[in-house]
Write a structure and sequence with these properties.
The structure holds three protein chains of three kinds. Chain A is an alpha/beta fold. Chain A has 19 helices and 20 strands. Chain A has three domains: 237 residues, P-loop containing nucleotide triphosphate hydrolases (Rossmann fold, 3-Layer(aba) Sandwich), CATH 3.40.50; 144 residues, P-loop containing nucleotide triphosphate hydrolases (Rossmann fold, 3-Layer(aba) Sandwich); 76 residues, no CATH class. In chain A, the strands form four sheets. Chain A has a six-stranded mixed β-sheet with strand order 6-7-8-3-9-10, with helices on both faces. The longest helix of chain A is centred in the middle third of the chain and has 16 residues. Chain B is mostly helical. In chain B, helix 2 packs across helix 8 and helix 8 packs across helix 10. Chain C has a single domain, classed as ABC transporter involved in vitamin B12 uptake, BtuC (Orthogonal Bundle), CATH 1.10.3470. In chain C, a hairpin with a 2-residue loop joins strand 2 and strand 3. The longest helix of chain C is centred in the first third of the chain and has 33 residues. Chain C starts with 12 loop residues before the first helix and ends with a helix. The chains are: A alpha/beta, B mainly alpha, C mainly alpha. The interface between B and C is large, with 51 and 52 residues.
C-alpha cells in the first residue's frame, strides 16, 4: 500500500539518506531499525511531508504522492506518533486531542466550536486506550506518562491508514506496553499499516512482521522477523558484532571496593520519594532501576541540588554535605550527567573544548583569565582517553557530534572537574548500540579508578549489563537490592513494579 | 559541515562591505563627509551609542535584554545636575555612575531572582528611570557649569571628561575605545566572557554544569546600567547640561546596532567586532543623511529599514532554501530556524 | 491502564466558564484586590475620586488603550510581541487627515484608507515574522521607527485639524449618555471574547503560543494565523489612532507616543504571559482599567505628572513580580 522508492536527502551538503526504499503492506507492522543518525527520523519526516526529498518517489496505493506539509499527509491518512511530545500546555486534553479539528456547531452557529461534542469525542478517543483522564484537564497538569499516552491516543483517534510510531513505549510501563501492542494488533487486523521505530529489540521481535534496517543513511536489508535473531539484527545495525557484555562480565574477577563515597540517609521529598537510604562505594557501579516516573530521576536531581529535599542528608566521602545548588554539588565532588544532553547537558553552539572545560574554571581560569595551553592540553587528554570522535578537532561545535560522542563530552566535563561521585541519568538514552558499549567500557574503567557511579535507568538490559549492584524503586520507595549475580529480568521487573520479595 | 568560524567571518565580511559602500556613497554625495572635522564629530557622536553597545553586547550574548539604557543615561545626567551644588560636581558624577549600576542591579535582580521577563522588566525600568529624571529636574534642563565660581578646579576636571584629550584623542572617544578593548578581552580570555556565551547558548546546561547563572546575569545587567552612568557623565560634561529628555529612544539605536552586528536575541552568539561594525554602519548612515540635510524622520525610517534588511537577509542567507517551494509560498526548510523565529 | 483519575466535572455553562477562568482566576483575583486598594487610597485623598462623574471620565479614557490591547493580547498569546502599535496609531490619523485636507477625499473614506494603511503595515509585520521568520521584537522595533518616521514625513511634522462633526462623534459623542468609544470597545471585547473562546481561530492561537510545533503537526496553518494576528493588531492600533484623532479633533505625527508601553503593561498586568499560550481578554480589560484608574487617581490627588511614569512602571513590575513569586511558591510547595 505504501512504497518509498530511492529516497535521497541531504542537509547542508551532508547525505542523510542515500537511495533508501521501503514498502509497507496493509495490516502489517514493519519495524524500522537503525542506530541514531541512520536516517530513520529523516525518512519518516519525508513521508510526513515535514521535509522535502531531494530525489525518489513516495507511492501510496500505486499513486505517486507529494506531501508539501504535514497537513497533506494527514489528509492521506498518515498519522505520526513522535518521540518528542508536541502539545499546548495551557489547553485542555480535549483540545490537544482534537487540535486543528475541533467539531463545529450545527446551522447558523456553524462557525463556532461545539464544546459538548468536543468533550464527548475526546472521551470516546480516550476510551480507545481505557484511559481515565478528564478531557477538560489542562495538559500542563498531567504527568509526563499521561502526556505520552495522550499523544498516542491523538494518533489513534483519527481515521488512519498508516501509523508511524517513533519510540512510542519510551515512557510506558510493561503492562501499558502490552496494552499498546494489543491495540497495534487490532489496528493491523483492520488493515492499517504500522511503521514501528524502536531501540528496544525485544519489542520488535514481539510486534513486527518484517524489519527494515538502515545504516548511515543507506538501506541495509529488509527481512521477515522470523528469519532474524537478536544477534543478527544488531550486526546489521552496527555493521559488526557486539560482544555479549553481560556474559563477559560475569567471568571477570571480583572488583575492588573502597569506602562509601556517596551515602544517602533518609532522603525524602513530598510527592516524589520517601525515606531513601543507600550508599555507593568507591569503585562500584550501582544502578537505580525503576519504571519512568518511579521517582529515581528526581532523586538524582535532588542529590545534585537541582531539587530540594524535605528531609534526610547526603554524605560524600564520609562527611555530611549541604547541597542546595549544582554549584554546591560540584564543590562537594558530585558530577551529574542529565537525561537530555541536548537540553540540559551541552551548550550546542560551543566547541567540544569549551564544553569539556565548562565546570573546571577554577583551575583553568585562575583570577578569571583562561590559560589556553593548559585548557587545550586537558581537553586533548579527555578526547583521547574517552575516544571522543568528531570531524574537525576540538573546536567543532558539539551540535555536530553524534549522540554517543555528545554523551562522552558531558562525561569528560565532570572528569575534568575531578569529581569523585558520578550520577548518570539514563546514560545511553538515544545512544546507538555501538557507542553504548563504548560508554559502558568507560564507566567500568572509571569505577576501577575509584569513582563511585550511580546510574539511573529504566532500561533493564542496561541495568543488567553494567552495574555491580542494583536497587529497584517503585513509587518513591526502594523495593529491592540485588547483586549483579542474583539479578534477573524477572525479579528486577517484579520489584520495580511494586512487588515485594 | 561548515564551521561556525567561517560563517561568522562571512558575516563580518558582509558588514565591512556594507560599511564601505555607505562610506563611498556619502563621500560622493557630500563633499564634507570625509573631512577630518566631520569624522571627528562623528566619532564623538558615536560615543554614547558605542559605550552602551559594548555592554549591551555582553548582556545579549548572555541572553539578556536591556531597554532601559536610554532612560538611565538621562536619569544619571539629571542626578549630576541636581547634586552638583550640594555635593560638588565630582562626587555627584561618581554617584551618578553608581546610580547607573544600581538601576542595572535592580533590573538584574528582577530578571534573575524574581523571574520577570527581561522585556517587561526593562520596559518598566525605562518608564521609571525616565519619570525619575523628570521628577528630579522638574522637567527642566539643568545647566552644569561652575555657576558660583567656587569649584573651578573640580569643574575643570569634570569638563575634561567631555572636552579633553588623551593621547591626542578626544576623551570620550578614548574611553569608548578602552571599554571596547576591555570588552574584547573579557569575551575572549576570561571566564566571565565564556560564561556569557555558555549561558546565552544554554542557560539550563550551564546551571547544571555548576555555573552560578544568576550571579553572572546580575553582573551583566549591572554592567549595562554602569555603562549608562559612564555615558551620562561624558554626555553631561560635553553638553554642559543635564536634560531629562536626553538619549531619547537610545535603546532602540543600541539594539539596532548590536543586532545589525550579528548578535542574536536568543543569545549565545556574536562578537564585539560585529557590534563595532554595526555601530559604525548605523551612525555613518545617520551622519551621512544629516549632511545631506535629510530630516531626522527619514533617518528614523532608514534605521528601521536597515535593521529589517540586515536581519531579514541574514535569515534568508543562513537557511537552506528550497526556492521553488518558497515561490509557491510553501514552507521553508525547518532546520534551526524555529528557535530563532520564536525568541522571547 | 493506571492513571490518576480526576473527578468528572459537572456539565453546564457556569462551571464551564469557571473552568476557562480557573487558570487565570488567581491572577484576576490579585488584580481585583490591588484595584480595590488603589481605589481606597485615592478615595481617601480626593473627594471627587469616587463620584459617578469621575468614573464616567475614566470610561471615556478607556477606549484607545483597551482597543489596542485586544490586538496585543492576541499577539502575546501566540508568543510574539508588537512594539509598533503606537507608531501605527499615529499613522492612521495622519493618513486620514492628509487625504482629507490635501486630496479632498471624503473624510469617511479617508478614515477607512487610514485604517487600510495600518492594516498593510500589520500585514508586512506579519510577513516578516511569519514568512521571513525574523524575531517579532526586532521586526516591530524596526517598524516602530519606520512607521513613526513615515507619519512625520507624510505630515511634514505638522498637526492637522480634523474639524468635522461626524468624525468627532466617534471619540467625543455619546449615545444615551454612554460614550461612543466605550460602546465600540464593549462590542469589540464581546466579539473577540467569542472569537477567542468559541472559534477555531481563537483556540488555534492558544495552541500556537503553547506549542507551534504541535499546531503545525496538527495541520494548523501557523504562518497564516500569525499573519492575521499581526494584521489585526495593527488594524486595531489604527482604530485606536482614529479615536485619538477624533477626541482631539486633530491628527499629530507624535500622537500615541509610548502607547506600546501602556498597552503591553495593561495586557501583562491582566495575566497574559509573554511566553505565549496563556492569557485572557477579561484580564486585559481589568489591566487597562487599573492603569486608567491609577492615572486618573494620580491626577485627582494632584501628584505631579512627572511621577506618573514612575508609578505606572513600578505598578507593572510589582504586579508581574508578585505573580512570579506566587508561581514560584506554588510550584515549590503545592505543585506536582
Amino acid at each position: 500500500m505504501l512504497e518509498m522508492r530511492h529516497i535521497r536527502k541531504s542537509f547542508y551538503g551532508v547525505k542523510v539518506l542515500d537511495d533508501v526504499s521501503i514498502n509497507l503492506y496493509p495490516g502489517e507492522t514493519l519495524a524500522l531499525l537503525g542506530e541514531n543518525g541512520a536516517g530513520k527520523s529523516t525518512l519518516i519526516k519525508i513521508l510526513n511531508g515535514d521535509y522535502s526529498r531531494d530525489a525518489g518517489d513516495v507511492i501510496l496505493d500505486g499513486v505517486p504522492v507529494h506531501f508539501a506539509e504535514p497537513r497533506d499527509a494527514e489528509g492521506a491518512g498518515i498519522r505520526m506518533i513522535y518521540q518528542e511530545l508536541h502539545y499546548a500546555p495551557e489547553l485542555s486534553v480535549a483540545e490537544n486531542l482534537l487540535l486543528g479539528r475541533l467539531p463545529h456547531r450545527q446551522g447558523l452557529l456553524g462557525w463556532m466550536i461545539d464544546w459538548n461534542a468536543a468533550r464527548e469525542q475526546a472521551r470516546e478517543a480516550l476510551k480507545l486506550l481505557n484511559v481515565n483522564i478528564d478531557p477538560m484537564t489542562k495538559m500542563r497538569d498531567l504527568s509526563v506518562v499521561e502526556r505520552e499516552i495522550i499523544e498516542i491516543v491523538k494518533a489513534l483517534s483519527r481515521k488512519a491508514r498508516i501509523i508511524v510510531m517513533d519510540e512510542p513505549t519510551a515512557a510506558l510501563t510493561p503492562p501499558e506496553v502490552q496494552q499498546l501492542f494489543g491495540i497495534i494488533r487490532d489496528l493491523c487486523k483492520q488493515g492499517i499499516g504500522i511503521i514501528y521505530i524502536s531501540h528496544r529489540l525485544d519489542e520488535v521481535f514481539q510486534i513486527a512482521q518484517r524489519v527494515t534496517v538502515l545504516r548511515d543513511g543507506k538501506h541495509v536489508d529488509t527481512r521477515p522477523i522470523a528469519e532474524m535473531t537478536h544477534k543478527a539484527l544488531v550486526h546489521m545495525m552496527v555493521g559488526r558484532d557486539i560482544e555479549e557484555r553481560a556474559e563477559v562480565r560475569k567471568g571477570t574477577a571480583a572488583i575492588q571496593l573502597g569506602d562509601r563515597l556517596l551515602e544517602v540517609q533518609g532522603l525524602a521529598k513530598t510527592g516524589a520519594f520517601e525515606d531513601i537510604s543507600f550508599h555507593v562505594r568507591a569503585g562500584e557501579i550501582v544502578a537505580l532501576f525503576g519504571l519512568l516516573g518511579a521517582g529515581h530521576n528526581i532523586l538524582t536531581q535532588t542529590i545534585f541540588g537541582i531539587e530540594k529535599a524535605d528531609s534526610g542528608n547526603v554524605h560524600i566521602g564520609g562527611h555530611p554535605v549541604q547541597v542546595a545548588s549544582p554549584q554546591d554539588a560540584k564543590r562537594a565532588g558530585i558530577g551529574f550527567v542529565p537525561l537530555d544532553r541536548k537540553v540540559n547537558g551541552l551548550v550546542l553552539g560551543m566547541s567540544v573544548q569549551k564544553n569539556i572545560t565548562l565546570s573546571n574554571w577554577s583551575t583553568l581560569a585562575p583570577f578569571g583569565i583562561f590559560r589556553p595551553k593548559k585548557e587545550m592540553h586537558n581537553t586533548r587528554h579527555w578526547v583521547d582517553k574517552l575516544g571522543i570522535r568528531m570531524a574537525g578537532g576540538i573546536e567543532t561545535h558539539t551540535r555536530y557530534l553524534s549522540g554517543g560522542n555528545q554523551q562522552k563530552v558531558v562525561l569528560a566535563r565532570w572528569l575534568e572537574a575531578n569529581v569523585r561521585v558520578l550520577l548518570l541519568n539514563e546514560p545511553t538514552w538515544g545512544v546507538d548500540v555501538g557507542a553504548r558499549s563504548d560508554i559502558y567500557d568507560q564507566l567500568e574503567a572509571l569505577a576501577a579508578q575509584g569513582l563511585a557511579i550511580l546510574i539511573v535507568s529504566s532500561d533493564i538490559e542496561e541495568v543488567l549489563t553494567v552495574s555491580h549492584r542494583i536497587l529497584t524503586i517503585y513509587k518513591g520507595h526502594l523495593t529491592g537490592e540485588f547483586m549483579q549475580s542474583e539479578a534477573t529480568q524477572e525479579n528486577l521487573l517484579h520489584a520495580a513494579a511494586g512487588g515485594t520479595l | 559541515m561548515k564551521s561556525a568560524r567561517n560563517r561568522s567571518l562571512a558575516e563580518i565580511a558582509s558588514l565591512v562591505v556594507i560599511l564601505t559602500l555607505i562610506i563611498i556613497f556619502f563621500s560622493q554625495a557630500s563633499p564634507i563627509f570625509l573631512t577630518q572635522r566631520n569624522l571627528d564629530n562623528m566619532l564623538l557622536d558615536i560615543t554614547t551609542v558605542g559605550i552602551l553597545a559594548v555592554f549591551t553586547t555582553l548582556l545579549m550574548i548572555g541572553g539578556g535584554l536591556d531597554l532601559s539604557v536610554g532612560s538611565t543615561v538621562a536619569l544619571c545626567g539629571v542626578v549630576i545636575g541636581a547634586l552638583q551644588g550640594t555635593w560638588g560636581i565630582l562626587p555627584a558624577a561618581a554617584f551618578a555612575v553608581a546610580i547607573g549600576a544600581l538601576v542595572g542591579l535592580a533590573n538584574g535582580f528582577l530578571v534573575t531572582y524574581v523571574g520577570i521577563n527581561p522585556l517587561i522588566t526593562t520596559l518598566g525600568m525605562l518608564s521609571i528611570a525616565r519619570g525619575l529624571a523628570f521628577v528630579f529636574s522638574d522637567g527642566l534642563t539643568i545647566p552644569v557649569f561652575d555657576s558660583e565660581g567656587t569649584q573651578f578646579d573640580a569643574y575643570n576636571t569634570f569638563t575634561q571628561f567631555g572636552e579633553g584629550q588623551v593621547f591626542g584623542i578626544a576623551t570620550p572617544v578614548f574611553i569608548m575605545f578602552v571599554l571596547f578593548i576591555l570588552g574584547l578581552l573579557i569575551l575572549q580570555f576570561t571566564s566571565y566572557g565564556r560564561a556569557m556565551y555558555a549561558i546565552g547558548g544554554n542557560a539550563q546546561a550551564s546551571q547544571l554544569a555548576g555555573l552560578s547563572v544568576r550571579r553572572y546575569r546580575m553582573i551583566a545587567y549591572m554592567l549595562s546600567g554602569l555603562s549608562a552612568g559612564i555615558a551620562a557623565v561624558l554626555l553631561t560634561s560635553r553638553l554642559y547640561a543635564a536634560d531629562p529628555r536626553a538619549a531619547p529612544a537610545m535603546e532602540l539605536t543600541v539594539i539596532t546596532a548590536v543586532v545589525l552586528g550579528g548578535i542574536s536575541l536568543a543569545g549565545g552568539k556574536g562578537t564585539l567586532i560585529g557590534t563595532a561594525l554595526g555601530v559604525l554602519i548605523l551612525t555613518t548612515l545617520l551622519n551621512g543623511m544629516k549632511l545631506l540635510s535629510t530630516s531626522t524622520d527619514a533617518q528614523n525610517i532608514a534605521q528601521g529599514v536597515v535593521l529589517l534588511l540586515a536581519v531579514g537577509l541574514d535569515q534568508l542567507r543562513t537557511r537552506d532554501i528550497n526556492w521553488t517551494a518558497w515561490l509557491r509560498g510553501s514552507r521553508l526548510m525547518p532546520d534551526g530556524t524555529k528557535a530563532i523565529a520564536k525568541g522571547d | 491502564m493506571q492513571n490518576t483519575a480526576t473527578p468528572a466535572q459537572s456539565k453546564g455553562v457556569i462551571p464551564k466558564i469557571g473552568r476557562w477562568l480557573r487558570g487565570e482566576r488567581l491572577t484576576t483575583l490579585n488584580l481585583f484586590v490591588s484595584f480595590i486598594i488603589i481605589c481606597i487610597i485615592f478615595a481617601s485623598q480626593s473627594e471627587f475620586f469616587l463620584t459617578l462623574e469621575n468614573f464616567a471620565n475614566i470610561g471615556r479614557t478607556l477606549g484607545v488603550v483597551s482597543i489596542v490591547s485586544i490586538g496585543m493580547t492576541l499577539v502575546l498569546i501566540t508568543g510574539g510581541v508588537d512594539i509598533s502599535v503606537g507608531s501605527v496609531a499615529a499613522l492612521s490619523g495622519v493618513v486620514a487627515s492628509i487625504l482629507w485636507l490635501n486630496f479632498g477625499v471624503p473624510l469617511f473614506l479617508a478614515t477607512l484608507l487610514g485604517l487600510l494603511a495600518c492594516t498593510v503595515v500589520g500585514f508586512l509585520n506579519g510577513y516578516m515574522i511569519a514568512i521571513v521568520k525574523i524575531n517579532p521584537l526586532i521586526t516591530t522595533l524596526a517598524s516602530f521607527s519606520i512607521v513613526r518616521g513615515l507619519a512625520f514625513v507624510l505630515s511634514n511634522g505638522q498637526t492637522n485639524q480634523l474639524n468635522d462633526e461626524a468624525f468627532k462623534f466617534l471619540g467625543r459623542g455619546e449615545i444615551g449618555g454612554v460614550p461612543v468609544s466605550l460602546i465600540l470597545l464593549i462590542v469589540l471585547y464581546i466579539v473577540f471574547f467569542v472569537v477567542m473562546h468559541f472559534t477555531h481561530f481563537g483556540r488555534n492561537l492558544y495552541a500556537i503560543g503553547g506549542s507551534a510545533d504541535a499546531s503545525r503537526l496538527a495541520g494548523i496553518a501557523v504562518r497564516r494565523h500569525l499573519l492575521i494576528v499581526y494584521t489585526l493588531s495593527a488594524f486595531l492600533a489604527g482604530l485606536g489612532g482614529i479615536i485619538i484623532a477624533s477626541q482631539l479633533a486633530s491628527s499629530a505625527p507624535r500622537a500615541a507616543t509610548g502607547l506600546e508601553f501602556t498597552v503591553i503593561a495593561a495586557v501583562v498586568l491582566g495575566g497574559t504571559s509573554l511566553s505565549g499560550g496563556k492569557g485572557s481578554l477579561i484580564g486585559t480589560l481589568v489591566g487597562v482599567f487599573i492603569l486608567r484608574v491609577l492615572d486618573n487617581g494620580l491626577v485627582q490627588t494632584r501628584v505631579s505628572s512627572f511621577y506618573q511614569d514612575v508609578i505606572s512602571g513600578a505598578v507593572l513590575l510589582l504586579a508581574v513580580g508578585f505573580d512570579q513569586i506566587r508561581l514560584k511558591l506554588t510550584s515549590t510547595f503545592g505543585g506536582k
